Amino acid sequence: MVSDKRPAPNDERQTINNLVGRYGLVILLIGLVISFSIAMPDSFATVTNFRSILDNQSVIVLLALAAMLPLIVGEFDLSVAAVLGLTQTFSIGLAANQGLPTPIAVVLGLIVGLLVGIANGLVVVGLKVNSFVATLASATVIGGIVLWYTGGAVIYDGVPQSLMSVATRQVAGIPLSVYYAFGAALTMWFVLTRLAVGRRLYAVGGNRRAAELAGLHPPRFIVLAFACSGLLAAVAGIVLGARLGSAQASSGDALLLPAYAGAFLGATAITPGRFNAIGTLISVYALSVAVAGLQQLGAPQWVTSMFNGAVLIVAVAASGYANRSKLTRARRAQLARIRERPDAPSDEPTAAATT
Amino acid sequence: MTVSSPLLEVHGLTKIYGGAPALANVSFTLGPGEVLGLLGENGAGKSTLVKILAGIEQADLGTFVLGGASTGSESGTGGVAFIHQDLGLVETLTVAENFALTNGFPTRFGVIQWDRVKQRARMSLQRFDIELDPDRLVAELSLAEQACVAIARALDDDVRILILDEPTAGLSAHEARKLFEIVERLKSSGAACILITHRTDEVLTVCDRVAVLRNGELVALRGMAGLVGAELVTLILGTEISAARTADERTQDPNPDTDAIGLSLTNFRAAVVGPIDLTVVRGEVLGVTGLADSGHINLLEALYGLTGPCTGEVQVGGTAYRPCSAHHALARSISFVHADRNAASLAGNLSVRENLHLNPTGGAVSRLDLARERTETSQTLEDFDVRPRNPEAAVSTLSGGNAQKIAVARALAQSPQVLLLCEPTAGVDAGARRDIHAKARAVAAAGGVVLVASSDYEELGELCHRVLVLHRGRASRTLAGTDITTSTILEASYGF
Fold first, then answer.
1. Taking the CA atoms of chain A, what radius of gyration do you get in angstroms?
2. CB-neighbour burial class of residue B311 (10 A; exposed 0-12, middle 13-18, buried 19+)
3. Do B11 and A215 touch (CB under 8 A)?
4. pLDDT over 60 at B3, yes or no
5. Mind telling me how many Å the CA of B383 is from chain A's nearest CA?
6. What pTM, to 2 d.p., does this model score?
7. Residue A128 sits at the chain B interface (C-beta within 8 Å)
8. A153, A184, B297, B456: which sits with the fewest CB atoms below 10 Å from its CB?
9. Strand ranges, E, within chain A
């Protein structure tokens, strides 16, 4: 009851801390946009530039969401970029080389991604292979398959316009790819925070044993997370192929790290300490605005890699810190209480006297 | 070194794990040639204390001084040897290799001199009159021989304080006696020993003084003069169970409906328990207890379907029930609270509200009713008197007692027919313990069956109508009413 009566400065500070924690990334994103716009009103603050950032990053957003789902249940999927490469090659190749109609090429691409995801999940829960190793291996296998199919060549001849317009057609001045990215993020946010299955996924990631004792079957949710991860990576792959109008074996390689940077940085925002869809969406765009702005200010190409790598480390450290600081506060309160307590009973005067 | 200067002085050691004190302000001293028995229930803080002394963990508050020289919990802990229950030997290596692993390989020009490795091991063992071939694999040795190797190895260095954690677990009486001969030899050399054990007879024969921890606090520190076994047990457990008081409390409970059988087991076997026959009527709180290896926890886990296949017949509310999974058990209105709340009950990084609704009702795509979750959670926090009253606080920030209340509250949410509680109040403060007991009684009063697996005899006396005592997986005795006392439970636990 005593603690209820003193809400004063401590609570207020905590509320501010919470707000900064939740929306810090949003504030950063807005801050970056405003400052780059002021610095470069002619090149940065243009509709074309914003449209191109939105469009360019749609693939990374989808891939980051794909990486995020297994992370929620406490597993890694390092094959998301490889699945992206596979489905990109597969759909573009089927349409261009085999002449399949666009809808069939797209659906087959999605199915392949889904199947790879399910296979990853089954290897992890069925064969009990560490997901890090399992998906690193499957990524390598997929890379080999793609190389085999393409023979190392770029597929660009005969890609039907209908396939390219899947991502490039503009609605209200914005390409469809952006709608996919935002649609996927909002859908996942809804599923994860408002549906029972979302709670169960977080429960499995939070404490697998506790989830099991609460009546859940964790392997089912782990396979589900990998399956959806594969499907999202497939969407990313098809969008990338449609945007570029081409496919090549190595296209996914450079995208894995930005995707993970986005997922981990996303876990520091909106619901700090927890992987979440909106945070991931915002962090991908915050990262890309920063990179785009720096490049337009004249920073060389290699800054992008350094920036993404450094952000991944900072993001992981920050999300760990967010969790630990909650614990530290609770520990401090306990320690203060023990300090106030008198010494433990002891019928040994020497022990008591030396204290 | 003079007799008066202590080998170890401990001042106000405190350690917090996840918001709850594992060790609170513990102070004592240890003199040369002294054997200190460190007693306490599981979770009382013994292993935390030992880990700090051995330098594995750091104290949050307080210091300790070794041999009057080194100071502070951060500084070196040379001179202390800690022999864990699992001994820390590499079973696939030989005795000599195990010695060399910690004590160094003698080399010439960078090449290991194996004859000297063996020689050293043989000499260390002979200091304690242990005749063992250094070439033998540790895996081939008996448990007692392994324990001797571990001790001899630890004392190879300049060790002044030896900490033994349950060294006689799994040893025969004869083997244990041989082990304690080594401790005696150690004493006469001026070193000191801290002995962690659950066996009161060992404490009485081997120790010079005892330190008793309860819920992280040092509740007694005294010499052995005039101390008898029963008194020791009382020190560990707290107050002796007063039959009068518990009888008084029990009369407040509505009488169990003796006609309605809530749970019955016939020739029930699972993993390490059985065969067990048992009938529990609705409205009854049945305690299940025994020594650590008696299987009292396993029985409840088996009923919840956690320990794999089981045989025999189980009936819940008059209809047959076959334990197979938690999901299946919950569908039959059987709830369970695990003994280890951090490992198996709660997701620390999720909020209190989410932990109470860890597996929300409904299909995968059914919508969460967040508003209802919030009001239900606030109601639960009120009912169970959980502090702080914040549904969105992460469970990892709660103290042990409050966290355990959340674990119990979730099990009670669906008003279970059968409630299985494993060590429901271990490491929980007195207030939380009272609240949890009240809730368990309420389940029984509403016509449910409550099974409480506990090694807390006081708890059994307060809470239970009857207590089933297991010995090596089988029923040893069933105690009821005023027969439930520390001594009767202990007797039955040992199979008398």
1. 24
2. exposed
3. no
4. no
5. 15
6. 0.77
7. no
8. A153
9. 170-171, 174-175
